[in-house]
Amino acid sequence: MISEIIKLNSGHEIPAVGLGVYLTPPNVAENITIEALRAGYRHIDSAQYYRNEHEVCEGISKWIKEDPSKNKREDVFYTTKIFDDNHGYELTKKAINVSLERAKDIGYIDLILMHSPQSDYERRHGSWIALQEAVKSGLVKNIGVSNYGVKHLKELLSYSDLTIKPAVNQVEIHPWLARKDITEYCKENDIKIEAYSPLVKGLKMNDEHLISLSKKYNKTPAQILLNWSLSKGYIVLPKTVTPSRLFPNLEATSFQLSDEDIATLDTLDKYMTTGWDPTTYPLDDEKK
């Protein structure tokens, strides 16, 4: 069965379907956040790099104020990310405070991720120490990483002063980019996978396998793709600025692909990225 809620290694729970707001303009982000929450979403994924943190938090705040007796802050899971140019202990501390200021109307941040591993050992390590301190402050509930390959995860888990493991690793994943090495390593270490670009940015909606399964289950190709990720226990982050597409994406939890059909989609894996891929970023000793 598809789980609509995923339990993190921190003990906190995260909705399995979230709204991604990458490339969502600031003047659109607030409204699509409100519309998503009205549609039933309880998980919004932003980042400092997206330049819409404030607007997303405003959307959450306004939704809560619409009906405070029913719309509760604790029911919404809000994520942001620290970008590469803010790696390092002091820079990350400042960046965390900036994000907290933008989120002041909602009180705290549920999850902060390191957006990628693209710096060096010292700065990545310093950033993680700052993130651990943010959790201890109570204003950040969970921390994790994004775009981390196995080697980056191994480096992080080897920190001598590690007190909090990453709750998630957010990476691009879909049937054409299965990342079995990363997903298996994360599973072994109780780090949940968050799949971004789970709809392959619309590039594969006419794939014959997808069309066939869409007809078989009477679901849209997008719902088939989301269900593939959900069936594997991943958290999915479909992106849309079109309100009419919000609820259909949530409905991807309402059915279950068969093991045979999941296996069919698994055969499509061919390392197809639709954007950047920092999971390949070299460690310090690999740059020499």
The helix/strand class is alpha/beta
Number of helices: 10
CATH superfamily: NADP-dependent oxidoreductase domain
For the secondary structure, the number of strands is 10
Supply Rg.
18 Å
CATH fold field value: TIM Barrel
- What top-tier CATH class fits best? Alpha Beta
Which features characterize this protein?
288 residues; alpha/beta; TIM Barrel; 8-stranded parallel β-sheet; two-stranded antiparallel ribbon; 10 helices; 10 strands; 15% strand
Write the layout of secondary structure elements.
Layout: E1 5-7, E2 13-15, E3 19-20, H1 26-39, E4 43-45, H2 53-66, E5 77-82, H3 89-102, E6 109-114, H4 121-137, E7 140-146, H5 150-157, E8 168-172, H6 180-188, E9 192-196, H7 208-217, H8 221-231, E10 235-237, H9 246-250, H10 259-266
How would you explain this protein's 3D organization?
It is a single chain. With 288 residues, the protein is of the alpha/beta class. The chain has one domain (5-272): Alpha-Beta Barrel (TIM Barrel), CATH 3.20.20. 38% of the residues lie in helices and 15% in strands. The chain has helices at residues 26-39, 53-66, 89-102, 121-137, 150-157, 180-188, 208-217, 221-231, 246-250, 259-266; strands at 5-7, 13-15, 19-20, 43-45, 77-82, 109-114, 140-146, 168-172, 192-196, 235-237. The strands form two sheets. It has an eight-stranded parallel β-sheet with strand order 3-4-5-6-7-8-9-10, with helices on one face. A two-stranded antiparallel sheet has the order 1-2. Helix 1 packs parallel to helix 2 (53-66), helix 3 packs across helix 4 (121-137) and helix 7 crosses helix 8 (221-231).
